[in-house]
C-alpha cells in the first residue's frame, strides 16, 4: 500500500507545480508497489522516480533563479541533498544488490515530501504568484527589486538571511 496519496493537503493552487507534485506522488506509489513484487521491479520503478525528481527539482530551481531567490537558498540546497540520497540508494541497489535502503527510503520520501510541499514549495508558489511569474513564458509581471532577493527558504520557517541577522557584538 502506498505511503502517500495525492490530496488537497499538498495541493498548492499552482497548476504546473501541482501537476509535477502529483506525478511525484504517483511515481512514489508505483515504486512502492513494484518493490512489493520484486527488488528488480522496485529498482526499475524507483529509477523513474529519480529521473522525474531530477527534472522536478531542476524546474523549481530554475524558477527560483529566474524570480529573485538567491543562489544560496535552503530550498535548492534541500533539493540537492534529497537527490544525492536518492542517487546513493540507486547505486546501493544497482551495484551492491543492497535493497534495504530502497525499502526504507520510499516511506521516508513520502513523509519528507508532505512537509516540503507544505512549507518550502508553498512559499515558492506564493512568491511566484507575488511576482506574477508565468512558467510558460518565464515572464514576471512584477519583478522584485534586487534587495528583495529571497534567501533562506523563502518562508518564515527558515533561519533569517545573513542580512536579517543581528550584527555581531
TrEMBL record:
Instruction: List UniProt keywords, sorted A-Z.
Output: Iron, Metal-binding
Which GO molecular function annotation, any one, does this entry have? Answer: metal ion binding
> What Gene3D superfamilies has UniProt attached to this entry?
Hemerythrin-like
One Pfam annotation, family name? Answer: Hemerythrin
Domain of life where this protein originates: Bacteria
UniProt-listed InterPro entries = Hemerythrin-like, Hemerythrin-like_sf, Hemerythrin_metal-bd
**Residue ranges of the region described as Disordered:** 146-169
Where do the Hemerythrin-like domain residues begin and end?
A: 16-124
User: What family is it from?
Assistant: Belongs to the hemerythrin family.
Recorded protein name is Hemerythrin domain-containing protein
Organism of this sequence:
Ideonella aquatica
Amino acid at each position: 500500500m502506498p505511503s502517500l496519496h495525492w490530496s488537497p493537503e499538498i495541493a498548492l493552487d499552482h497548476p504546473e507545480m501541482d501537476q509535477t507534485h502529483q506525478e511525484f506522488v504517483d511515481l512514489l506509489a508505483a515504486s512502492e508497489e513494484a518493490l512489493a513484487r520484486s527488488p528488480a521491479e522496485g529498482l526499475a520503478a524507483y529509477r523513474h522516480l529519480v529521473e522525474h525528481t531530477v527534472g522536478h527539482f531542476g524546474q523549481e530551481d530554475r524558477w527560483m533563479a529566474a524570480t529573485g531567490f538567491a543562489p544560496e537558498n535552503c530550498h535548492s540546497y534541500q533539493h540537492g541533498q534529497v537527490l544525492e540520497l536518492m542517487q546513493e540508494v540507486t547505486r546501493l541497489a544497482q551495484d551492491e544488490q543492497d535493497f534495504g535502503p530502497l525499502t526504507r527510503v520510499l516511506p521516508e520520501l513520502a513523509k519528507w515530501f508532505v512537509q516540503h510541499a507544505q512549507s518550502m514549495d508553498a512559499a515558492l508558489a506564493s512568491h511566484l504568484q507575488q511576482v506574477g511569474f508565468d512558467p510558460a513564458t518565464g515572464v514576471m509581471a512584477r519583478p522584485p527589486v534586487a534587495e528583495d532577493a529571497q534567501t533562506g527558504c523563502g518562508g518564515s520557517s527558515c533561519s533569517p538571511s545573513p542580512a536579517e541577522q543581528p550584527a555581531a557584538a
